[in-house]
Predict the structure.
Amino acid sequence: MAGTEPAAARGDARADAEMRRTVWLMFACQALMNASVVGQVAMSALIGHSLASDKALATLPMALQMASTMAASIPAGLVFARLGRRAGFVLGALGAFLGSLTFALGVWQGDFLLYCLGAIPAGLGFGISQHYRFAAAEVATPAYRPRAISLVMAGGVLSAIFGPELVKHSRDMLAPFLFLGTYLILALLPLACLALLSRASLPPAPPCPKVATPIGEILARPAFLAAAITGAVAYGTMNLVMTSTPLEMMLCGFGVGASATVIQLHAVSMFAPGFVTGRLIARFGVRRIIAAGAVLNLLCVGVALSGREFGHFSVALMLLGLGWNFMFVGATSLLAEAHRPEERVRAQAANDFIVFGTVAFTAFASGAIHAQAGWLLLNLMLVPAIALALGLVALQSRRARAA
């Protein structure tokens, strides 16, 4: 028995090292896939504004991308359930590659419709990439799971730095076609992601349950509703303000470089806390972290409405990013408590369908609300949505204590 203990310890150490290595690879893949989206946020409304005859459609490309992200949820769940994580992530990377090339073609031709078509494969790829956090949770031990989720989401720190810098330094690379070179460079990122995936130890397809839990039963669970709606509010309210910020800054006289810098600060604030959010959840509890995120988002509204200088946009978007991180990582952690292991793919697909359906709606509504009602109403719309999320989380907390 004494001789087997060191061998068992070595086996546990190797398993732990392999788990952490896989989580870091998921971190890198998430960073690569997010870089395209962060760059797209800095560009799409400006390109849409220049190509569309109706300026209220400026955010339509981003809305279509988020709608495609929502539409990817159910097919991605089927692929992951039948073929495993690796096959699904490969399809996602190929979708992002095709999307960047189609965006480039639309810019080259000056064709708004063609540019919008690029949002479909790009959105499908981004939707599938949202499951990197779920894959990390599956390979992690229960104690390490919140840290694994937040760490993978922290991969966005690299994309937050790299994406806007890429936009600023490559926008005129193939002049007079503004942003054409940017999209051609972005097309290389999913190819790098494919190389990393070839080295990752990903979980196989889950065993098929003899009797699948009806999706209606999963959706009706209070714990699932609290997690999904909190995630939808976190992402939807953030997207509502973020998407129109470059437009508002343009109307205030700021150039592409200034708005790209604000989006960069926002994206860093979204993802950098991921290095510590998991620890904060372990120490203070997931519901307190969600509440802290809600307060930060309300502070964002106050700063955004207090002025329209560069500092106001910067601070407001940084608060918005930090609030999103606390609320969204918290919602993802709540989701892990709302389903059994054999239900995970169906629950995750349903969750992302709800979350990114909300994001798609807010991406399109952002441009229309900004054009018709203005910056003031756009920001005030965050308040009732955040109150709804807090109410659901508090109600679920009471239910959990009672149980």
